[in-house]
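pipeline: protein-struct stage 2 | run 1193 | Cell division protein FtsL
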Amino acid sequence: MALSARKEAYIQQPAVPQNPSRQPVKKQSLITKGEKVLYLSFLAAFVFCALMILQNQSEIQASTQEIQTIEQSIDEKVKQNTDLSVQVSELSTYERIWSKAKESGLKLNEQNVKVVPGQ
């Protein structure tokens, strides 16, 4: 019997009256429109700065690579110049010049030799 009484009490409870004049409640967002604009502008500025940094780094890397290439070519030219100056000093020895003169049929005439002072 107690069970049926409980059922009847449950069934007989009046339903919650709905008020048709009441408008649905809007949820307020946690972030306002102004804050959204500020966040988006900050994000855009951050992305722009990051892209500028990346672009500058790539330009710096390209310049560094070009500098290294130029330095290598300078080192090669310095080595070539050193080798050529050694070759010039070897080819300009007195004995070599004298032997080339003899091969050409020239003879040493000491009366025609002039000494240049200074060098």
